Amino acid sequence: MKISAYLVVLCLFLTACEERDYSPERLPKENLEALKYSMVRYFGKLPKRYANHENKFEEQFDDHYQQHAQEHEVLAYYADKAGKEFLLIKREAPSLYKKYVATGIVFERDKKDSVTFYRESFRTWKMPDEELKEKGMLLFDKMVKGEDLSPYYPQNSGDEEFIEFPDDRNAFDVSTRRWLHPSLVSQ
């Protein structure tokens, strides 16, 4: 009986101490590029003309999204045993000085690689590259572990510290897969 209890405690300890490898380099480069391209229609900007959220998957916009995917860098990637995938993606932000934003994403795909669930858990403020990597990885790790990110929201952490969205004016709606005013988000 004592041996069984020790084994349970040891298993719990090892699970709690599990080292997660978030390095995107462990995936082949072509897989990373394919992942960015398959997800860019969700996290990326719409093409300027004629595109909207209802038609953004049409073939006529493929060139835009191919190019737009290249404007993003995968900072971290993780897939858990339950089928959830986690992505931290970075892009250059409009700024007088070179700054970047990162988006933390949770998604699931079916056997045909179709996205069945998609949620942007956070988007950071504009930051210099090294600061973004440090803060982005901290937030990503908490997101993967299912920890509460609300202490890092702007209303709780001070302006422009960590997370720009969600905030009092923007929440992510998983049904439309877009950022909306919290009053419009379906429960």
Rg, nearest Å: 18 Å
What is the H/E string? HHHEEEEHHEEE
Percent range of helical residues: 25-40%
Please state the average pLDDT score: 84
Q: First CA to last CA: what distance?
A: 46 Å
Structural domain tally: 1
Please report the total strand number as a whole number: 7
Tell me the strand order in the biggest sheet: 1-2-3-4-5
Query: Approximately how much beta-strand content do the residues carry?
Result: 25-35%
Main beta sheet, described? 5 strands, antiparallel
Total count of helical runs of at least 4 residues = 5
What characteristic shape results from the CA principal axes? globular
Low-confidence region ranges: 4-17
- Kindly name the structural category: alpha+beta
Give the arrangement of secondary structure elements:
Layout: H1 2-16, H2 29-43, H3 62-70, E1 72-79, E2 84-93, E3 99-109, E4 115-124, H4 129-144, H5 154-157, E5 163-165, E6 171-173, E7 178-180
Antiparallel strand pairs: 1-2, 2-3, 3-4, 4-5, 6-7
Explain this structure.
- The chain has 187 residues and is of the alpha+beta class.
- The protein has one domain.
- 32% of the residues lie in helices and 26% in strands.
- It has five helices and seven strands, in the order αααββββααβββ.
- It has helices at residues 2-16, 29-43, 62-70, 129-144, 154-157, and strands at 72-79, 84-93, 99-109, 115-124, 163-165, 171-173, 178-180.
- The strands form two sheets. It has a five-stranded antiparallel β-sheet, with helices on both faces.
- The protein starts with a helix and ends in a 7-residue tail after the last strand.
